[in-house]
Every structure is written in structure tokens, then in C-alpha cells.
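Postdoc handover notes: sequence design on the structure in folder B. Input C-alpha cells:
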């Protein structure tokens, strides 16, 4: 569905998927795209609200796609864990040619379920029934945080891991 009201354009996705390079399809139903003022040129601001559900590998592969390339910048591969994932993201960006990752402001909140990884910590298997992931690249503390309860091999933990992004907001 799409609508134009005055100089505002809005589009909502009732159903649909995207298939990144790895991990299978991602359900995108409920996602929206809005241009608040189509007359603002050049580089009219736009807001994308994504609602996603799929495998963690698929979502990380999508984040690793140009122009963001977040996983590569952080030194990780998109297939670093097995998990079911749901996430909501808000991206704000100017609509203009030559867009780079630095042009995109984002905030992401996601839930990982049935997490398993034997690559995050070499020589150890990480498991967790559920983990909360948050990421933001603007503001006072840009970075990514993963929090929750789980185990390294048979040793339980309840904590969080945080990776701060660079001063320019990149991973």
C-alpha cells in the first residue's frame, strides 16, 4: 500500500520477503517507508521502519550488505551463530545518489532465540534460550549490545557484551 498526502509519501508492506546472500528469506511484513517532504531536494530525508523475522544468519547477512557492511567492519561473518531472530529497525537517510553507510542513522532492537555458536568464542560453544540485541550508530554511545542468560559449554552466565562503534558511527 502506498499513499501521497500533500508532499508526504508513505508505503507499507503488508507481506513480503527479502533474500540476502546467506541464511534464507526474511519476512518483512509490517515494514514502512516514508518521505516526509518530497519537495526537499537534494537529498530529501526518508525514514525506513523494518520489521523482520528469519534466521540470525539471514539478518546478519542483510546488515552486511552494501552500503552498511556492518559485519565485515566488525570483523565477523554473517554465519557466526545459529538462531531464530526477530528485529525492528529504524533507518534515517537522505535520498541521493552515492549513499554510504555513514549517511544512514540506525537504531535496531532484536530478539534471538535458541542461540548456538561455536565461532564467537574459539574453543567454546555458546548457547542461550534468548538474547536481546540493540544497536545504534548515532548519539552519545554508538555501538551494539547483546544481553541475556546462556552458557559457555556448561558454565552458565548472565551478562552483556558491548562493542562500541567508531567516532564516525561506523562499526
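Designed sequence:
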Amino acid at each position: 500500500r502506498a499513499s501521497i498526502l500533500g508532499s508526504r509519501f508513505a508505503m507499507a508492506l503488508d507481506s513480503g520477503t527479502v533474500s540476502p546472500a546467506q541464511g534464507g528469506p526474511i519476512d518483512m511484513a509490517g515494514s514502512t517507508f516514508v518521505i516526509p517532504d518530497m519537495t526537499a531536494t537534494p537529498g530529501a530525508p526518508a525514514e525506513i521502519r523494518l520489521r523482520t523475522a528469519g534466521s540470525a544468519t539471514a539478518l546478519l547477512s542483510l546488515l552486511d550488505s552494501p552500503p552498511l557492511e556492518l559485519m565485515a567492519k566488525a570483523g565477523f561473518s554473517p554465519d557466526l551463530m545459529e538462531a531464530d531472530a526477530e528485529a525492528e529497525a529504524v533507518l534515517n537517510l537522505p535520498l541521493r545518489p552515492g549513499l554510504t553507510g555513514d549517511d544512514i542513522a540506525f537504531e535496531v532492537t532484536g530478539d534471538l532465540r535458541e542461540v548456538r555458536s561455536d565461532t564467537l568464542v574459539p574453543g567454546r560453544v555458546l548457547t542461550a534460550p534468548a538474547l536481546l540485541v540493540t544497536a545504534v550508530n548515532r548519539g552519545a554511545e554508538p555501538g551494539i549490545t547483546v544481553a541475556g542468560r546462556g552458557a559457555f559449554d556448561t558454565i552458565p552466565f548472565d551478562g552483556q557484551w558491548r562493542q562500541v562503534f567508531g567516532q564516525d558511527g561506523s562499526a
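Context for whoever picks this up: The chain has two helices and eleven strands. Don't rerun without checking with the PI first.
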